[in-house]
Amino acid sequence: MSRRAFDGRDERGRTTALPPALRAYMFRKGEVHNPAGKGDEYGRCLRLCREASFSAAEEIIRLSKESDDERVRFMAATWIYVRLP
Q1: Of the candidates 58, 61, 57, which has an alpha carbon nearest to the alpha carbon of residue 77?
Q2: Is the CB of residue 3 less than 8 Å from the CB of residue 11?
Q3: What does the pLDDT read at residue 76?
Q4: How far apart (Å, rounded) are the C-alpha atoms in residues 6 and 55?
Q5: Structural domain spans, the chain
């Protein structure tokens, strides 16, 4: 079944031309809308995790050695092993 040429779709139904309403919001060549590439909330979360990472690692190590529950010790030891460089 053949589609009309002006409807913006090829013979398989894939879009080949955008409607004007969507074309107005397209990125233009050479235009940068987010130069850092990351959102502000992402940066806040990253900073928070970096600040807490040392104490979190200490807690995981403590759990791997001192927990009464062997499942917790196993999971903590696995977490440490998997994340070694």
Answers
A1: 61
A2: yes
A3: 94
A4: 62
A5: 15-82
CA distance 38 to 74: 35
Residue 73: per-residue pLDDT: 95
Tens of pLDDT, residues 28-71: 777 777 776 777 888 899 899 999 999 999 999 999 999 999 99
Six-digit token string for 65: 């050695």
pLDDT tens sequence across 26-35:
777 777 777 7
Place of tokens 């759990």: 63
Work out whether the CA dihedral 24, 26, 27, 33 comes out positive or negative: positive
What distance separates the 2 farthest-apart alpha carbons in the chain? 72
Q: What angle do CA 34, 36, 38 make, to 5 degrees?
A: 80
